[in-house]
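Entry 12.
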Amino acid sequence: MKKLLFMYPIQAHRYLGNFTIEDLDLLGKTINERYRQKDYQIYFLSFSDITRDKLCLVQKEDTVIFGSMCFDWNTIRWKERKGRGPSSKQDGYFEYWQNESKRMSKYIDYPSFEDILNELAPDEETVIAGVDPYRTPYMFTEYLQNLGYNTFLDLELGENFPKYRRYCGFSPCTYNLQNIMINDEMGTLYSQGIYLYERFHSLFREKSVYRLSSYTPTISKIDAYFYKICIDPDLDFARNEEILSSLQYLLCHLSKEERIAFYNKVFKNPQEYVEFLFQACSPNGSSRFFFLLHLLRYIIEKENIVSFSSFKEGKDFNRKKALGFKNKVVADLLAFRKQLLENPNNISCQTDNVFSDVIKVNQLVDMYHYK
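Predicted 3D structure (C-alpha cells):
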C-alpha cells in the first residue's frame, strides 16, 4: 500500500501557526487530492505531549504515530539558541545562514527513525512531508532511501505551503519539484538581481534524495519570472529598468528550446499568454496588468532581446513572417490597452484579429494608477 507520512501537523509557532484559514483549507484539499483520493494511507507524526485532538488535518481513518520527543522542551531550546542574521539584501547573507543552519542543528532533537519505521511499515511507495522539510522529513526520507525503500519527499506540504501554493504552476493534485526549482531560481533573479542569481545553486540539483530527474517541468523560467511580478504585493513600478535588465539577461541565457517555446507563445498565440498574465494579475488590479503588457510589448519590439543566432539567420523561422507577427502583436497590445482604458466599466472587451476571444475585465477597477 502507498503511504504518506506528514510530520507535526501542529498549529503553533515554527509549525502551522501562521497559516490562514484559506491556507489550512487548501493544505487539507491538497492532501486529499494528491494522496487520499489516490489510495494512499495517511500517517501523521506527533510529539509525545501533543494529543491527537490537538492536531490539525487528521481524519478518522488516519494513523497518528507518537514519538518520544517533547514539544515544550524542544520549543524552549530552539528559542533560546536561535540567532539573528543579516537580511537577504546584505553581504554575507548566504554564508551566514549556511553556518547558522549547521550551528542550530546541535540544538535540534530528532525522533527515533527506527521506531517510526516500525510503525509506518513502508510498502509500495512512501511519501514524506511535514514541518521543516529540510531537516526531519529530509533526513527520514534519506534514511528510508538508504534502506532501499521507494521514497519521495514532498516539500510543499509543510510550513512553507503558503509560499509554495502561490508559485507559478502549483497544483493541489500534483507535486512537481522541477516547478518549485524554477520558481525559486526566478524568485532570486526577481528579488535579488542578476549578481545574486548567478551565485544561486539549487540544492535540488545537488542532492540525490530529492530525485529531481523523476519530475518534468510544466512551466518555463520566463513564465515563472512574469508570475513573480504578477503576484508581488509590493511591486514598485519604478523598478522598470531593473526588471527589463533581468528579463534581457534571462532571455539571453535560455536554451534554444526554451527560446523557441517563448517565441511560439508570444508570437503565435498571444491571446493565451496575455490571459495567463491577466488571471495572475487580476487580484491586484489593472495597473499591474498594464505594467506587464508594457514589459511584453518592450520585449517584442526590441528584437535583439528575444532574437538568437538561428532566428537572425532565418534557420528556424521565416524572418519576414516573424517580423509581421511582431508588428501585429505590438499593434494589438496597444489597441487592447486603449480599449480597456476607454471602457473601464465594461464586463468584457476584445480586440480584433489576434485577440479574438473575450477577456474578462470586471476586476480592472484602478485604471488611473498606471498610464
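Annotation: The longest strand covers residues 41-46. The two ends are 58 Å apart (CA to CA).
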